[in-house]
Amino acid sequence: MFNEFEEYFSTLKIDKSPNTLRSYTNALNRFIEYFSIKCVDDIKKLSDSDIQSYLNFLASKPSAKNKDTAKSSANAHYRVIKAFLNWLKEHDYIEDVPIAKVRRYKEAKRVAEILTKEERDNIILATKKRLGLHAMMVVMFYTGIRRSEAINIKIEDINNGYLLIHGKGNKERQLPLTPFVQSVIKEYLSKRKDDSPYLFVSLHGQHQITDSSLQARVKKACEMGGIEEERLKKIGAHTIRRSFACNLLLDGWSTFAIQKALGHSSVLTTDLYVEPAKSIAATKALMNQSAPSWYEI
Question: Distance between CA atoms of 124 and 221, rounded to whole angstroms?
Answer without folding.
Answer: 8
